[in-house]
Specification:
There is one protein chain. The chain has one domain. The chain is rod-shaped and about 55 Å long. The protein is mainly α. The protein has one helix and no strands.
Amino acid sequence: MTLLPERCNHVGAMHQEIRRAESFDLTTLSVALRQLRNLTVAAR
């Protein structure tokens, strides 16, 4: 059972990466939505 702490640390690191990716995706999504809204407003 010596692999257990290593695996826990790996899962924690993966979770941090996923959380970082999620926050990055959210900011990218909000920027993309704002640009899309600006395009639709400009197209009118």
